[in-house]
Amino acid sequence: RSLEMDMRNADVASQFEAHFQPILSVQSGKLCGFEALMRWRHPTRGMVSPAEFIPIAEETGQIDRLGRWMLREACVQAASWPDPLMVAVNVSPVQFRSGGLFEAIEDALRLSGLAPSRLEVEITESVLLADSAANLGLLRQLRDHGVRIALDDFGTGYSSLHYLKQFPFNRLKIDRSFVREIDNSPESLAIVRAIIGLGASLGIDTTAEGVETTTQLERLRAEQCGELQGFLFSPPVAPGNVADIIGEFF
Ligand code: G
Ligand code: G
Ligand code: MN
Ligand code: NA
């Protein structure tokens, strides 16, 4: 049977999981929160990567159901963490298109009791590329509600700077393709430095993704990057391992 059919028939709450990757302050090393990343524990295929199942979910209309569940699960988990730890949730452009996203977020916040300021929604610029007027309106509605908005994979699109003028993002996530080369490519270092400077000028937080080495960490500290995430500290972990990370880094 196809993954599509398996997904359609799956009881989401029993086959899908939210895993959490810690986000830390570059300067202090203290924990700021976690990014929630979806996992599918398929009954016969084992763990299926979101890189494989998210595109299928987007094409078949299943992303709305999965995304609604993910928002609830992430907010419910985050509500059990000490204040002010935040949770970042990836939201697909398809969820914007199909309507009901604001209500799904409102619902997840109400159900969990999580303060809106502790939820960050991560979007990619493709959200602003398509249906931009409607989507900008929805982003403003979320911000007015107190939810934070992050621009994911920053620097990889073809006109990222244009979007900074259109919407006051709370955070830029520096794509890991730049971070990976920061020690051996002067161009990548210059780009990371420029993004951090841009964030500082605009009052937008910057998070470096994919930090794997202490040399990268030291470089990011010298450049005064705000936060980081990456395998250097931790991969995404199951909810049962979150308390240990909070104990170690909060
Ligand atoms: O966790 P991993 O590195 O395998 O994630 C691969 C990709 O899947 C990343 O681009 C990530 O943003 C995306 N992804 C993971 N979880 C979710 C989710 O809950 N919703 C959406 N839309 N994308 C997700
Ligand atoms: O597109 P997005 O930024 O949401 O993707 C998150 C993905 O990045 C997840 O699949 C996560 O597993 C992966 N990831 C997190 N930290 C690292 C890292 O240090 N190195 C690499 N290669 N991938 C990472
Ligand atoms: Mn992300
Ligand atoms: Na990213």
TrEMBL record:
Q: Which domain of life is it from?
A: Bacteria
All copies of the EAL domain together span 1-250
Protein name, please?
PAS domain S-box-containing protein/diguanylate cyclase (GGDEF)-like protein
Show which stretch of the intact protein is covered. Answer: 571 to 820 of 823
